[in-house]
Amino acid sequence: MGKPDRKTFVDRSNRLIAHIRSSLANGTYKVGDYLPSEVALAERFELSKNSVRAAMGTLVEEGLIRKVPRVGTQVAAVGRPNALRIGVYPSLYADAMMRELLASYRAEHPEVDVEAVTLPYSNPESIRQLLAYGVLDVVLLNNLDYLYFKDNGLLGLLELYPPEEAAFPFLNKLFAEATQPTRVRLRPFVFSPVILCYNRDHFREAGAFEPDGGWTWDDLRQASRKLAQANRYGLFFHLSSTNRWPIFLLQHGVSFDREGGLPSPKPLEGLEALRSVRELVHEDGLFPLMLSFGLHDVELLFKQGKASVILTTYYRLNELADAEFAFDVAQLPRSRNGRGDTLLLCTGVGVSASTARKEEAERLAAHLLSRQAAETIRRGTFTLPADKRAADEAAPERACAPRRFEAYREIVPNYATYDELGLSVQEIETFGKCLEQYFSKLVDEEGLLELFRSQANEGKPSPPR
After folding, report:
1. CA distance 103 to 100
2. Which of 85, 91, 18 is nearest to 55 (CA)?
3. How many CB atoms lie within 10 A of CB 464?
4. Angle, to 10 degrees, between the axis of helix 272-282 and the axis of helix 217-227?
């Protein structure tokens, strides 16, 4: 028998992780119990010890298990047997006041035991497992992970509902069911476009005009030259982030089709948009070209006064709530062809189609989607609730709120989404990783495309089970 390929190992690792998660949820393993040895798990799931160790590392990061030196792997946390479980991304506690919203629900329904389950980022397959194995009753899912569910025929894991009448129409459209356009699998909860954020003091000191709706990337480059100083860069954003690089292709109308089974960008010359970005970030003093920076270092450097302009979101503005200087927001610059597309990010509320507690799950979902919850989010954060009236009328209780906070309303026609790229979620992630070599000038556009096709073909996942 030949050696199993990489896809087989990934599938077996996912089955191991799913098995342990479901065993924790159904009470097979309790807090303090020790799991079978790595050798036993390797034999059962036909994996190497290193593969088992890597899979267990995922569960360690989630806080479900812990390694006890020279003893074994111990259960650190399990789901409460009769709890109503909701899957929550960690960032939503700060960005959407989830602790407060769940606390208010518990106060109104003290008879219901609600347990929040932490969702992993950039791992929709793990979220699928949590739904498929009945671990979750309610889930908060972002539109990139939703695209994974849609592309892999997994939307049946979520209940169908009428669109939220109070939500922005473009957000309901984002989650519309293809075969039943009057129904949605997710109901919009919070959203944000990608925007510019800039230090007003830096612009004033440099004698530079603040961004306006007519700005191009060339205008931003010229302003960044004035803004850059010793120990301060003019511009910063995370180059290979899946929430950033797609913008440059979308502004040039680039979409990938399947030529010979491999993803091919159309128009091909649209990739030149990436070349202009590379030239910008390599200009001396304008951009801190260190790919080792993390996703959240952008706002940190901005708050420290080490960057004058950043690409960010309304979610990430919450990191600037205690900034000691005046900052403002603006729409993204336009491309040379005049397009001002920006990427729309949104998280919706879904109810598991297999939950045994449908009435309670729907009640929790309705609480999160209520006007009261939307106003709580709007007044307590910079995050935009999906409820249109609350987003437009409830004022944030922040003294440092940007003067042009409502820029999101003016740029609605420029909102674009991941699916316009014509790539799967895994291909989007792969392309972003390949861009690290491109932006480091290790490959040109042709080499980028060749590298992407090679890695995309190699990393095709097995169909979800």
Report:
1. 5
2. 18
3. 17
4. 10
- More confident call, 293 vs 212: 212
Contact 202, 359 (CB under 8 A): no
Q: Which two tokens stand for residue 465?
A: 């089970």
Pairing mode of beta strands 84-88, 114-118: parallel
Q: What is the pLDDT of residues 302-328, one digit of tens each?
A: 999 999 999 999 999 999 999 999 999
Query: Phi, psi at residue 347, to the nearest 5°?
Result: -120, 135
Closest C-alpha among 417, 436, 122, 444 to residue 247 = 417
In the DSSP assignment, the letter for residue 352 is B
**Dihedral of CA 359/161/132/427: which sign?**
negative
Q: What is the DSSP string of 159-228?
A: --BPPPTTB-HHHHHHTB-SS-TT-BSSEEEEEEEEEEEEEHHHHHHHTPPPP-TT-BHHHHHHHHHHH-
User: Which pTM does this prediction carry?
Assistant: 0.84
Span 379-404, average pLDDT: 87
Angstrom distances, CA of residue 134 to CA of 106, 121, 130, 159: 22, 20, 6, 14
- Taking only the tens place, the pLDDT of each residue in 20-66 is 877 877 678 888 889 999 999 999 988 998 889 988 888 887 778 88
Nearest to 329 by CA among 215, 436, 199: 199
Burial of 62 (0-12, 13-18, 19+ CB in 10 A): middle
3-class SS string, 10-67:
HHHHHHHHHHHHHHHHCCCCCCCCECCCHHHHHHHHCCCHHHHHHHHHHHHHCCCEEE
- Contact (Cβ atoms closer than 8 angstroms) between residue 328 and residue 403: yes
Number of H helices, E strands in the chain: 19, 14
**Spatial contact of 112 and 141, defined as CB atoms under 8 Å apart:** no
